[in-house]
Predict the 3D structure of the following.
Amino acid sequence: MESNSQLKGSLATLGLLLAFGIIVGGWLLGAQIKATRLSDRYVSVKGLVERTVKSDLVIWPLSYKEAGDNLPAVYAKTDSDKTAILQFLDEQGIKSSEIELDVVRVIDTQANEYGGGNRAPQRYIVEQQITVRTPRVDQVAAAAQKTMQLLQKGIVLNSNPGQGLAYKFSGLNSIKPDMITEATRNARAAAERFASDSGSKVGSIRQANQGVFSILPADQGSTTGEEGDNNATADNSLMKTVRVVTSVQYYLEK
């Protein structure tokens, strides 16, 4: 009798364990099926944020050159031009610590001449560049409007592409975190509108891409660009638009 009772007890325990195993297995299977279905239900949205900022650094190269057949005379004229330009900058309130002088470059147009058929009209070209680098962008912007004074003194500044005023914004890292947070918030708002229209709810993030930060002219904020884009158009703009677009995928739940 005692043996039968033990056997019945063992069978009952085994039955309970099997029942518990079936329940747990069914729950796990249901959760897996739900997760599989959930993985197929998601929405991809973008969050856009733009901020208008003011440049905090300006680089102003002033290049000039003189040409002639008498090297000492040409050099003397170049040195006179340098003095006049430095005086002009001083009158505009530009500090000496904000001015960089490049080395004087001398070109002998006949040094490597062959045949003599295309001789340059003047043998020597002496050129130099003075560069202003300062965070006082307004000061330089005002001074750049008065370069006609140099022309009146016979000094012609070179206007080669990429050698004009270059405005920079160096504070990108300080505004990145807030912009990313706002862009993600905007992306979720877009996802919630989509989910509402489809009778769903927005779940957790499936995948996210921070996006690329672009620095563009303030009047060109809708144009895409790359981070740190330093094309001439962007550099010429004192006011800039910082732009980022994040791409986020959210799960959709019933």
User: Anything to note?
Assistant: Strands lie at 42-54, 57-68, 99-101, 105-108, 124-134, 166-168, 201-209, 214-217, 239-253. The first strand starts at residue 42 and ends at 54.
